[in-house]
Amino acid sequence: MLVLCFLNFSLQTYRYRAITSAYYRGAVGALLVYDVTRHSTFENVERWLRELRDHTDPNIVVMLIGNKSDLRHLVAVSTEDRKFFAEKESIYFMETSALEATNVENAYAEVLTQTYHIVSKKAMEAGEEGANSAVPSKGEKIDVSAMKKGGFCSS
Fold first, then answer.
1. For residue 72, what is the DSSP state?
2. Is a pLDDT exceeding 90 seen at residue 126?
3. pTM above the 0.85 mark?
4. How many Cα atoms within 13 Å fall on the side-chain side of residue 17?
5. What is the Cα–Cα distance from 66 to 42, expressed in whole angstroms?
């Protein structure tokens, strides 16, 4: 199951501290989104990343996203600081602008691409060990009707 968690740090982050491990179950990708014009939102990223890592598979694909890149004159956290954090934590990094639709689709596509590579690699390794493949074969129908409404969690 593919579940992307979209955590927006523009809102009060303490409101979401009660998120349980069940909320993250099955997640293979996460977009950690913060507001580049508010330093306080960037400061919370480390805690959210730690929570993700505590409650998800170690192979989860995580992308750090600095949103509102169109507001260059109001940027509160430098691109270098954001890139440094992403490299230190071994996560992907991208700047986006939801207002201008800049890199939004690219961010999702990159997380999905990296997730696909990991799942495919796991399936190949499982196939080598004689286990059933977790990846559907070409042309196989995938039933997504069982996916709960609100599979993309946005705040």
1. G
2. no
3. no
4. 6
5. 8
